[in-house]
Amino acid sequence: GLWRTTGKKILHIDLESSADELGGFIHRARSLVEFRATVSSLRSKCSYEGVAIDTLDILNAWCEEETCMELKQKAMGEAEGYGSDWARARGKVMDLVRSLQMLDKFLILLVHTKVEKGAFAGVNIAVPQGLGIAVRGFSQVIGYLYALEMGGEVKRVLSFTPSDNTIAGSRYPELNNQAVYIQLQDKDKDGRGYADWRPVFKLFGENL
């Protein structure tokens, strides 16, 4: 929805076949090989003002699968060096993310969330802990998108407010402790729907 509400050309790299009803610039990658080829192509020539990865947990799963194949093991956690396979997979993911960061474009990392219990109770991103820490340190803004029912209507809220059980926050003071409603817009003539991001940009004083 960013390109419709801001006019910016954002390339949405769809890794999980979830963008069929989205409008915009959609590129589908179905494997790690295809994703790497996409990154290489963008590094060679990028006419977009931003790139979105949908989703980071799928990219991580591909990198873990490749790591297991390289180490000839059946599952993660079986490497002789404690945690060495996790570090290897994490390095693969972050190398690709940093390659896109080097484009000096608007970079969006979409990732699913999971509810955890115990010492790390709360809502966390659905990737291994080490990768989650690396991603949080890398990110300038972390927004938590969730749905709630109000008056019989479902509202979608994008929160930048951190708490003991929610990972969110911003290095930009305009977004500190903010939460905005994200409205889904009716589908256009092409049959594609989109989300209206103007409430977020208005926090920066932009009247889009």
Give a structural overview.
The model has no long low-confidence stretch (mean pLDDT 87). It contains six helices and 13 strands. Helix content is 32%, strand content 26%. With 208 residues, the protein is an alpha/beta fold. A hairpin with an 8-residue loop joins strand 12 (183-185) and strand 13. Strands 2-1-3-4 form a four-stranded parallel beta sheet.
Pick out its properties:
alpha/beta; 26% strand; 208 residues; globular; 3-stranded antiparallel beta sheet; 4-stranded parallel beta sheet
List the helices and strands and how they pair.
Layout: H1 2-6, E1 10-14, E2 25-28, H2 32-44, E3 50-54, H3 56-71, H4 84-101, E4 106-110, E5 113-116, E6 122-125, H5 129-138, E7 141-142, E8 144-150, E9 153-159, E10 169-170, E11 179-181, E12 183-185, E13 194-196, H6 198-202
Parallel strand pairs: 1-2, 1-3, 3-4
Antiparallel strand pairs: 5-6, 7-10, 8-9, 9-11, 12-13
